Amino acid sequence: MDLKGQTALVTGAGKGIGRAVALKLASCGADVVINYAGSEEAAKKTAQDCESFGVKALCIKCDVSDEKQVEEMVKEAAGHFGGIDILVNNAGITKDNIILRMSEQDFDDVIAINLKGVFNCMKHVSKLMLKSRYGRIISISSVVGIRGNAGQVNYSASKAGVIGMTKSLAKELASKGITVNAVAPGMIETDMTGGMKQEARERMLSSIPCGSMGKAEDIAEAVCFFAGKKSGYITGQVLSVDGGMAV
Ligand code: NAP
């Protein structure tokens, strides 16, 4: 995959899946914008590691749930690199609980970051992409957005919403050289799953046909596939990378 001369913006790229995606795109030659919300040191480390591939990296602090901040981030990134060719909507959180114990705040927070955050980034980055009539937008959904999961009504709603937005925006932008796709990870080893109780972990593991958790790099490979110039005839798709969980 050759992404030389292109610029990728990856949200939540300081750690976990976002970091692996940024590194993969950098290894293919793309300059990268490393977005973070709180983890400044981790973001700087990702940027440094990306630069070791001979590309340029820029860290930008921004809460993706705030449209004004996203507008500023996109302006800064485009000012620095001259445009954005690839957007990876990766930033996300969980606030799990059974519905009777889930507060309105926990519901709203997850929707604000996981769903509205994707909308904010899609809106402001696609404005730039429309001008250059080229773009690749890839959002990280989840197996939970496809199958649902007890204790995650907020998270599953946000991730199913990402799939709906992906399909709608794919139709809006298909004739403009811009593709819009999603990757739906299963259970991946990151901080997000690191805090799971042993019992829940074992229950989840038993539902994975491959028999093991995935790695952030597995997701990065799928994102990179959609990011390439050669994937231009693929849009509105959701690629499950989950060891067979969604089957
Ligand atoms: P993670 O290690 O907890 O990383 C989450 C990332 O999101 C962090 O870099 C964090 O940045 C960023 N973030 C959170 N709130 C943000 C905000 N308001 N604005 C900007 N960035 C924000 O989790 P992960 O497992 O890598 O998850 C990455 C994505 O994959 C998420 O969308 C998640 O839902 C999805 N996913 C994960 C799994 C899994 O099993 N791990 C499965 C399916 C889907 P800061 O640290 O700077 O706040």
**Rg to the nearest angstrom?**
17 Å
What is the H/E order?
EHEHEHEHEHHEHHHE
The strand line-up of the biggest sheet is: 3-2-1-4-5-6-7
What gap, in angstroms, lies between the N and C termini?
A: 29 Å
Please name the fourth-level CATH homologous superfamily: NAD(P)-binding Rossmann-like Domain
Biggest β-sheet description = 7 strands, parallel
Which ligands accompany this protein?
NADP nicotinamide-adenine-dinucleotide phosphate
Which residue ranges are poorly predicted, with pLDDT under 50 across at least 5 consecutive positions? none
Structural classification:
alpha/beta
Strand content: 5-15%
Count of beta strands: 7
The whole-number mean of residue pLDDT values reads 97
The shape, in one word, is globular
In the CATH hierarchy, the third-tier topology is known as Rossmann fold
Helical stretch tally: 9
Structure description:
- There is one protein chain.
- The chain has nine helices and seven strands.
- By secondary structure, the chain is of the alpha/beta class.
- The longest helix is centred in the middle third of the chain and has 29 residues, at 104-132.
- The protein starts with 6 loop residues before the first strand and ends in a 6-residue tail after the last strand.
- The structure holds NADP nicotinamide-adenine-dinucleotide phosphate.
- NADP nicotinamide-adenine-dinucleotide phosphate is lined by residues 11-12, 14-18, 35-39, 63-65, 90-93, 113, 140, 142, 185, 187-188, 190-193.
